[in-house]
Amino acid sequence: MSKEGRPDVPELEILSVIGFYGSVYAGLKVHPDREHFIYPLGNTVIVEHITSHRQYFLTGHTNDVSCIAVSNSGKYLASGQITHMGFKADVIIWDYSNKELYCRLTLHKVKVQSLAFSPKDTFLVSLGGQDDGSIVVWDVKSKEAVCGAPAAVKSAGTTYCVAYCNNDDFKFVSGGDGTIRVWTLDLKNRKIPAVDCNMGQLKRIVKCIEVAEDDSYFYCGTTSGDVLKMNIKNHILSFFGPEKDKFSMGVTSLALVKTGAILIGGGDGTVAICKGDKFKRMKSAKVKGASAITSLALRGNGHQFFVGAANSQVYLFNFAEFTHEILSTCHAAAVNDIVFPAESSELFATCSRNDIRIWNAGTGKELLRISVPNMTCHAIDFMRNGKCIVSAWDDNKLRAFFPESGKLMYMIEDAHNKEVTAIATTSDCKRIISGGGEGQVRVWEVSRNRQSLVEAMKEHKGAVSCIKVRKNDQECISASEDGTCIIWDLQRFVRNQVIFANTLFKCVCYHPDEHQVITSGTDRKIGYWETYNAAAIREVDGSMSGSINGMDMAPDGQCFVTGGDDKLIKVWNYKEGKVTSIGKGHSGFINRLRVCPQQKLIVSVSKDGAIICWKYPVC
Amino acid sequence: MSESIYNLIPREQVAPPKEKRYQSKFKSSVKDELKTNKSPNKTMGPAKVNLRSSGEFLTKHSKEPQLPEKTKFQFPDEETRKPGVPRQTEKPLMGLKSNKDFVQTNAVENIMSVPKKPAANFVDTPFGSTHPLEPSGLMPKYMKKKGYGETPQYLQKRKDETVRAQEEYNEYVREHYRRGAMKQLTEAERQTILDGLKKNWEEIHHQYQGLSVVTDTAPKKMRKERMEAEMKQLERDIELLEKHKAIYIGNY
């Protein structure tokens, strides 16, 4: 707020966040109080109550969170991040009880790979990424580094993970590409001498490490699909296995259960319980729809455990019966568009790479998923009668789907010469207006069985980013990245008016009475324009830092909402052109946002895959 | 049925109110019936039967089954049997007595009788199982029949008849010769006739081969048919002459 210079502006209330960064290894944790999840989403760390789903946001990182650690007592959380090449990546220790930043530790370059707390919360050990390659031990109390060392010998590859002993505050282990080391902290001399473990002829890349409860052994999951059992005392490999029937695509996560069994998550979505020195599979389940299992989080002693997959799905497993149910889903890639069906605030649809999903706005549960593998959907819209979902894809196709079964209704091949970037429907449900990357705006006459091109309007020179149609279906406005917005006559298919500005237009909105439009784009300015003669009425600074990507007008026309690269949602009074509320919560660039037709919700989607529902403020 | 996005909107599931417990509508009437006719003899009521008069009271053994009268046992051939041997005490009828000495006559009869011939059997196993010899086929039976190996009579008769007919015919021919009424063709004559016939046939055949292929007019057809008929006749004659060596020609 101080950055924006508006200390009096009230904040928007977050109703729910749909999002989880599944690709972070061991990113999903259960707090020792057994009642909260901890997981990363973009550059925030979210603490969520397991049953009531109340969320707390720990914000402070400047880029995506790459690792998370929870102290044994549960007093502290630690998270590391990625930054751009040449910058330092922070480790942040959070005070859990107050949910606030405890200290920021900056030493590592580019990426913090892994973190581990000592059993008595005295020390935090952090491992730098490939470009850093060092291990640093931090004193939690004094918030200072104790000592540091290169993570591996120069001949070895990257070190991927680090784990502390369960009883000894001065011993920890690390593992990576051809290196497994046991470290002993010499506090007096500020040194951490390391002993490389002897692996003989075995060559393995370790991705995850778990230390046994009595600190006698530690287990390493490898990309070859087996588990190594190492002796800590004599640094010798004691067993490895399974010899046959290895975990395909590697062992990506490990967890030790009190009974002596090992929970193993595989790269192909397998979760298994293994026992004994041969690592025999006692129980095994392939989680349907999950990609690599990146996190296995035990709740308490492990009667229940949570499984996080790389495609951002969270499952709840019952240990005894070994059954599972899906707990939450979210997009694993940038969400490109959000749309509400006409006159309904209970549902909304979002689109991303590979899929379109329909969500229940109240509960945040996924209702329907339409998958088109390896394709990215840029824009979606509902037909006004609700009988069809039309979508614009990067393989130059327009696809329409049935809204309940999710089956393909029809597909227009080569709808544009480049990818389709914008789409809109008319209120009579007979026409689709699409915009393409090459700058054409095309009008299609569609029915379930027949789709034909009515007219291609070739005025734009850059990609069309947004199309809005008037209520009477006689005019539409298209915003393009060539710096123009054009108002088209949809009966004669000619240009009525054109708006020029020195910007890449990202969004455009009609005022409900349709005499004025507001536009915005990368120049961070919100422009008010007359539709009759395209005359500029007013220009307002929409943001201090980033471009504005999403904008929507409230149905009553009193307010409009913007969001963009500054990761802030702003609610504006239309007449005064002033910000009335600000929503903070997004950790990635906001791509689009919408106000629901009943004006209860604002839903925004961002590049990090998060969907946030905000309560619409009282203007 | 067309799909609609609005069907996806989660609806509050209102549980239907629990229905009242089932109670039969006949409950009251069943209750009344149970009270009034306590034992209505199940379904049809008590059977309507006339009461017996007071005299026909129940007596002893009256409910036991009635068995038929006992009869004396008799053999089925009792009537056809001869009467029993007269007893010692019985007196002969009319005082008639025979002087035949049955003991004597029986003894004489037996002494004079020819002993019975043993049955003609054959034994085929070492354990002595016997079978009658006669039907076994081991004894010549048909060989010893009367007329065995002789020509049957009817064949003999037929043979005699043919011989007699031949003799009669020969006699007839000889008679004709004697009267000069018949002559036999010589071999040379027969040959010339045959050659002539063959030549005729060849001529007609030559002409026949020279006929036009198409027989379109009536005269052509008639001619062809005529030639065919002639050739057939000639063939028959040639065959007749070639078949028989001796040919006689009557003069009359």
From TrEMBL, chain A:
<comment type="similarity">
    <text>Belongs to the CFAP52 family.</text>
</comment>
<feature type="domain" description="EML-like first beta-propeller">
    <location>
        <begin position="55"/>
        <end position="314"/>
    </location>
</feature>
<dbReference type="GO" id="GO:0031514">
    <property type="term" value="C:motile cilium"/>
</dbReference>
<dbReference type="InterPro" id="IPR050630">
    <property type="entry name" value="WD_repeat_EMAP"/>
</dbReference>
<dbReference type="InterPro" id="IPR055439">
    <property type="entry name" value="Beta-prop_EML_1st"/>
</dbReference>
<keyword id="KW-0677">Repeat</keyword>
<dbReference type="InterPro" id="IPR015943">
    <property type="entry name" value="WD40/YVTN_repeat-like_dom_sf"/>
</dbReference>
<comment type="subunit">
    <text>Microtubule inner protein component of sperm flagellar doublet microtubules. Interacts with BRCA2. Interacts with the CCT chaperonin complex. Interacts with HSP70. Interacts with AK8. Interacts with CFAP45. Interacts with DNAI1. Interacts with IQDC.</text>
</comment>
<dbReference type="Pfam" id="PF00400">
    <property type="entry name" value="WD40"/>
</dbReference>
<keyword id="KW-0966">Cell projection</keyword>
<keyword id="KW-0963">Cytoplasm</keyword>
<dbReference type="Pfam" id="PF23409">
    <property type="entry name" value="Beta-prop_EML"/>
</dbReference>
<comment type="function">
    <text>Microtubule inner protein (MIP) part of the dynein-decorated doublet microtubules (DMTs) in cilia axoneme. Important for proper ciliary and flagellar beating. May act in cooperation with CFAP45 and axonemal dynein subunit DNAH11. May play a role in cell growth and/or survival.</text>
</comment>
<dbReference type="InterPro" id="IPR036322">
    <property type="entry name" value="WD40_repeat_dom_sf"/>
</dbReference>
<keyword id="KW-0969">Cilium</keyword>
<dbReference type="InterPro" id="IPR011047">
    <property type="entry name" value="Quinoprotein_ADH-like_sf"/>
</dbReference>
<feature type="repeat" description="WD">
    <location>
        <begin position="583"/>
        <end position="619"/>
    </location>
</feature>
<dbReference type="GO" id="GO:0005930">
    <property type="term" value="C:axoneme"/>
</dbReference>
<dbReference type="InterPro" id="IPR019775">
    <property type="entry name" value="WD40_repeat_CS"/>
</dbReference>
<feature type="repeat" description="WD">
    <location>
        <begin position="457"/>
        <end position="491"/>
    </location>
</feature>
<keyword id="KW-0206">Cytoskeleton</keyword>
<keyword id="KW-0282">Flagellum</keyword>
From TrEMBL, chain B:
<dbReference type="Pfam" id="PF13864">
    <property type="entry name" value="Enkurin"/>
</dbReference>
<keyword id="KW-0963">Cytoplasm</keyword>
<dbReference type="GO" id="GO:0005879">
    <property type="term" value="C:axonemal microtubule"/>
</dbReference>
<keyword id="KW-0966">Cell projection</keyword>
<protein>
    <submittedName>
        <fullName>Putative enkurin</fullName>
    </submittedName>
</protein>
<feature type="coiled-coil region">
    <location>
        <begin position="224"/>
        <end position="251"/>
    </location>
</feature>
<dbReference type="GO" id="GO:0001669">
    <property type="term" value="C:acrosomal vesicle"/>
</dbReference>
<keyword id="KW-0175">Coiled coil</keyword>
<dbReference type="InterPro" id="IPR027012">
    <property type="entry name" value="Enkurin_dom"/>
</dbReference>
<dbReference type="InterPro" id="IPR052102">
    <property type="entry name" value="Enkurin_domain-protein"/>
</dbReference>
<dbReference type="GO" id="GO:0005516">
    <property type="term" value="F:calmodulin binding"/>
</dbReference>
<feature type="compositionally biased region" description="Basic and acidic residues">
    <location>
        <begin position="58"/>
        <end position="72"/>
    </location>
</feature>
<feature type="region of interest" description="Disordered">
    <location>
        <begin position="1"/>
        <end position="92"/>
    </location>
</feature>
<feature type="domain" description="Enkurin">
    <location>
        <begin position="157"/>
        <end position="249"/>
    </location>
</feature>
<keyword id="KW-0206">Cytoskeleton</keyword>
